[in-house]
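Onboarding guide, step 5: your first structure request.
Type a short instruction followed by the sequence, for example:

Predict the 3D structure of this protein.
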Amino acid sequence: MSTLPVIDAPDWYETIRMGEDITLIHEPWIKPFFRCNIWHVRGRDRDLLFDTGLGHFSLRRHVPLVTERKLTCVASHTHFDHIGCHHEFPDRCVHAAEASILSDPRNEWTVADRYANEEMFDGMPAGWDTARYRVLPAPASRLIEHGDVVDLGDRAFEVIHTPGHSPGGIALYERKTRVLLSGDIVYDGPLIDDVYHSHVGEYVETLLVMRDLDVSVVHGGHFPSFGKVRYRQLIDGYVEGRRKPGCHLLG
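The system replies with structure tokens like these:
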């Protein structure tokens, strides 16, 4: 049995500039299926941080980009791999349907009880102890709903409510650039609809509504970014799979 390398905090995060003042922050020692994409968007008046990763190591301490300017931190949803460092940012937003989980992120509600263990890693974070892992409470300073706007001054991201993967899931869409930050409702990998508070019927309905959105690039909650053709392929593939005879569209 091979022993994983132990990774210290300074080597845990990686930042990749994607263009259009959007930067991917991720944790490359987490296996791709479990690895959250953390999206940073530079704005004129403030920056946007969409999700915050596992939370074992501090984002603020080890990724200078997130402390350079005023910043609004938004949760795509409240699964553990997306909200681990939300407590580090005082201006934080979440959909009302999951605000209680962000305030009281118990492992059974964030699905940490199912996924947050040694099997996640290609490199073991120094000090990791599965039995002691918890997301810290991070009560929202603002509740957001479908149609709300996250305003960065020169950039505006519209909130799209995306129930299905979780009840308070959201995506952020910038009409000017047609950039979609999609969270976990659609990404280029296996879509998850069988965890605590997932609902297959709502998932299908959400994707059917989102299918005709005019996107230029989609930055998902996991796996690499993609364009409009792949976006529709992923949606059509999921919907077709869930509409086959014998597949129940209940939660």
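Each response can be followed by summary notes, for example: The helical segments are 59-62, 80-83, 99-103, 107-110, 112-115, 200-210, 228-242.
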